[in-house]
Amino acid sequence: MSHTEQGDINELKRVRLEKLQELRDMGVDPFGGRFERSTMAQAIKDSFDNFEGQTVQVAGRMMSKRRHGKAGFANLQDYSGSIQLYFRQDDLGPEKYELFKKMDMGDIIGVSGTVFRTQKGEMSIHVYDLTYLSKSLHPLPEKWHGLKDVELRYRQRYVDLIVNPEVKEVFVKRSRIIREIRRYLDELGFLEVETPMMQPIPGGATAKPFITHHNALDTELYLRIAPELYLKRLLVGGLEKVYEINRSFRNEGISTRHNPEFTMLEIYQAYADFQDMMDLTEALISNVVNQVNGSLQVEFEGQTIDFTTPWKRLPMLEAIKQYTGLDFNHIVDDDEAFQAARGLGMELEPGAARGEIINEVFESFVEEHLVQPTFIFGHPVDISPLAKRNRETPEFTDRFELFIVQREIANAFSELNDPIDQRQRFQRQVEKRQSGDGEAHMMDEDYIRALEYGMPSAGGLGIGIDRLVMLITGSPSIRDVILFPTLRPVKE
Known about the structure:
Oligomer: single chain
Number of helices: 16
Shape: elongated
Largest sheet: 8 strands, mixed
């Protein structure tokens, strides 16, 4: 913002502060109390025939105002929408009309009046009483759209919601999406639970955690990177179908697809496997899309995404062969895999395992082609420390990821319930940490102890709620679907 623009704002604030004092001098509380509304703005417009001639009480924010001598109009905006107000001095009386004259854009008011239609056909309220509810001391921006204001919109979401109605609709739709997910899972007999967000050992994913300190216990705690290991402890305890929708935290970079604080849905079902989770994912997401959008086709960044089932299911090695020509079924050791990836022009760390190289090749050459909903399954054990091995090819796991418009939306697998195998995989992760990999999994003795009591075979599924909301609402950035995203500090 330029010095001139800031100076203009400061002058407008000064004028509003003067009006604030004038209101108090008139005996008016500029920050009034309770106001009983009888209806909402949009309800009047939707059922005008029922409201015409009736007296109503509405409240909201004044978004425009124009005055013609002893009469004037204003536009009032509430949560539901907006409606025109008509003021006339002869009806309001001199004192109340003086209040109308002092009103500024952004002021919050309550009015009582009669519903009518103007000569131009505008559905309106003829105001007979006016109550000040909150004086706005900061002027609303006249031009809030545009790239130059994107960062400011995220920082001042409260203003963004006031002046950009389409932003509010995104978050209303987000709420509907989560509500529909809950309804669907509840009807299938799943139990919603809550597990710790502060954990002594961060588990359930490979990611760098946020660390905090508990003074009373004099111990380090970690903001969870995933709820997975606690939810699977519940399977051990006999809760056979559970889910959680809540925050996870990862100490990673910020981008249009990543926010350090994000919302995950995780689901676990005893006596199921990754194929059951694939079916559940397909049915759950397609149902949510249809219920919320009224269609299985969604427009996203100029592309039509079709959520009509069934969705494509493709083994990871077959996808790599399709898009690179490399057949890792015949590339059997780490060195050969390393040379094959180098042949594609990739730069890899020496000593990378074959499974890790397979994943690197997939991310570099395949993901960009996965536009329509596609399940990729058969991930290497090296990158899947919590997934059950495939019986026929034990170096791979019964795991899938769902990709839509090049984004990973869901991750699921048949859960590893062998405590001996789990300990060995944790130990390999510990060795990675000791070699400098800050995202490798820690050893979790209590989780292994839980497995030793016996965990039933199970399928587990995680869905990124923020990314799903991005798709369904056509939002290009994760910041568009998080009310208060994490942003870089403002430099003074």
